[in-house]
Amino acid sequence: SAVISQKPSRDICQRGTSLTIQCQVDSQVTMMFWYRQQPGQSLTLIATANQGSEATYESGFVIDKFPISRPNLTFSTLTVSNMSPEDSSIYLCSVEERGSTDTQYFGPGTRLTVL
Amino acid sequence: AQSVTQLGSHVSVSEGALVLLRCNYSSSVPPYLFWYVQYPNQGLQLLLKYTSAATLVKGINGFEAEFKKSETSFHLTKPSAHMSDAAEYFCAVSGGARQLTFGSGTQLTVLP
Question: Strand B106-111 and strand B10-14: pairing?
Fold first, then answer.
């Protein structure tokens, strides 16, 4: 399976600021996904990011708040913009396995606290 | 559309006892089903998956799950719990749309 890293692993930010989270994969992948896990909750898909095209956002998530870049087949970024305490969550990226059966592998997550 | 229900947000077992975590799914197409584990302060690790081959699926760390279409279930079991199994477990379903829908999670506590 792919090895996925995320930076930063955690951060504490002030409201009104923005944070960019990086996701790096050790192999080329077509599909990358960004999830949010609010405290004590399950995972919610924010968007799907394919290389060379605009990210596809799920209901309740908008590009202005969560802009995503996917410049190549091994890297993606998620920005959390104009943060509020409600954005305090773990943000996880995942990649789809090749030849897929929809199997996804996850990065270690970025734990964000907004004060 | 698909959905997942995990019965029991918290399950406690004694070390050495059987682990049973319940998952029921709803899918309008033949599903792919997954179990993930999340240890404290970590990401999700794939335990096992069902992708329409054998209905009894064996995963890592001694876990297995059985796909039962008639019961729309995919329960996770382990014959003998170990302290290191304490974690949160998530069941997920995919209807082939390349997206996963996760259950609400079950926190497993293993008592000495």
Answer: parallel
Chain A residue with Cα closest to B89: A42
DSSP helix/strand/coil, A59: coil
- Residue that the structure tokens 């279409």 belong to: B69
Sign of the CA dihedral running B91, A6, A33, B52:
negative
DSSP-based three-state secondary structure for A51? coil
Distance CA A33, CA A26 (A): 16
Q: How far apart are CA B108 and CA B2, in angstroms?
A: 25
**Tokens linked to A60:** 């309740």
A28 vs A45: CA distance, rounded Å: 21
Q: Tell me which chain B residues have a C-beta less than 8 angstroms from the C-beta of A33.
A: 99
> What is the rounded (10 degree) CA torsion for A84, A90, A93, A96?
-130
Nearest chain A Cα distance for residue B14, angstroms? 24
Q: Which of B84, B54, B67 is nearest to B23 (CA)?
A: B67
pLDDT tens profile A8-22: 999 999 999 999 999
Arithmetic mean of pLDDT, A31-50: 92
CA B23/CA B68 separation, integer angstroms: 11
